[in-house]
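Lecture notes, unit on protein representations.

Consider one protein chain, 304 amino acids long.
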Amino acid sequence: MGYQIQGNVAIVTGGSQGFGKEFTKLLLKKGAKVAFSDINVEVGRQTESDLQKEFGKENVIFVRADVTNDEDWTSLWDEAEMKLGAVAILVNNAGIGASLGWERNVDIMLKGVGKGTFLALDRMGKNMSGRIINIASIAGIASGFTSKIEVSGYTMAKHGVIGLTRSFPRARPAPFSKYGVKAYALCPWFADTQLLREEISDLSKIERSTKTRVLTVEEVGKSLLTALEKDKDGACYLIFPDVPLIDFPNCNENLFALSVAAGWILKKAGYEPDVIGWPVVLAVGALLLIIFYYIFAILKFMVW
């Protein structure tokens, strides 16, 4: 069934252009009412005018808001509820270019997401229902997509967003479940947006160096609808060209268990190195798989 979009009210931050504008349009087409925000008033008003002509003034509004400012967040939410109704969907999309400094990246794309998320929990939690979609990046899953340490703040922020998103179903004791609110993250590959073009004017350089085309805004927009349809709490979806949407596993959690098991086995065997490297962890993992295979085979034989 998925999460119902029609008849609900959504907030989309950074909604004047790029991903945010596409998310706003798709939600409107699916029957939602949308309040979108941006710090750029001129572009925001123009986008509002265009969307109101297509979808009606009663269905979409623009609110100027800086996601790093608590008062702006409160004003955005209040205006959305006053003009459109109770908010049930939040898309934390606002972002900036990686080259604008690590502190600014963290302020907008991590702390801004956190401010929106916890305000959403407070407001949506009163109705025990709601969905938060955080826009992360492939840079939040895998590091090293740039050779410049100066832009690593982007990677830092996106890793934090994924950590927050995965906390919804997994934190113990579960602090989020009492609100009835779910969250998931979208992690797109490089996409053809104005933000990326401001960083890299010739996108063909990316395609040549990675041997992979950049995504279109429409492809990323479609993934938002798919995520709401799947409605899996804590999911982080990798969006990559020419493959289906990937529900990316929480590798760190799985490898944590394997690493601890490897350390325990080595200690019991009398081998205690200062540091256990990945080759040893993988070797122990392979050994465990072989042991479990033979245990299963023996049990199966005994049952027969």
